[in-house]
Amino acid sequence: MSKNGSLSKDKGKRRHVTNFYIETLILTVVLIAVILVLTKVFVFSADISGRAERLTRAVHLAENAAEAVAASDSLDSLRTLIEENGNVQESREGENGMLLAWYDEEMLPASGGKFRVEVSWIPKVSAGGSFVESTVSVYWMEETKPLYMLETAVFLDGIQEQTDAGEP
Q: Which of these, 126, 146, 124, lies nearest to 136 by C-alpha position?
């Protein structure tokens, strides 16, 4: 009888050890799955965060360019306001023009920067005076679709004449 009793104890121990290994294996697989899912989530969030940071910087660059357009009375004065360290190229077709300015990742002027800001200068004449329509587009590296784009316009003359005419 003692032989049978010791055999059943050995079988019970073996089952217990086998169950322990199976449970450990299952927990290890679950842990690896959780780690893989979390790694994927962190990589995805880092990518989204990088895109959001680039978009925010593109908006700031476009706002700065639009303010420079508002403060300019000619394409030459616009270039003077935007250009630093040779980061601007200009192209003209008659009165119309386009400025291309490059900035690095920190939004500092750099001739080989990763941000490209295109500012159009299109003068128009109306009954109240002349004004300029401008489109500011900000691109990231060599992308063909802009990260951010805004349209603006500024009156060059005619406002002072209207104010003077209305004064007593």
A: 146
Beta partners for 51? none
pTM of the model: 0.73
In a domain, 157, yes or no: yes
pLDDT tens profile 111-162: 889 999 999 999 998 877 889 999 999 999 989 999 999 999 998 875 443 3
Which pLDDT value is given to residue 8?
A: 64
Cα distances (angstroms) measured from residue 83 to each of 74, 78, 92, 159: 14, 8, 16, 28
Distance, in Å, from the CA atom of 32 to the CA atom of 34, rounded to the nearest integer, reads 5
Instruction: Report how many domains make up the chain.
Output: 1
Q: Is 9 helix (H, G, I), strand (E, B) or coil?
A: helix
Range of the domain at 115: 44-166
User: How far is 18 from 7, CA to CA, in rounded Å?
Assistant: 16
For 29-66, the DSSP string reads HHHHHHHHHHHHHHHHHHHHHHHHHHHHHHHHHHHHHH
In a domain, 12, yes or no: no
**pLDDT (mean) for 9-36:** 90
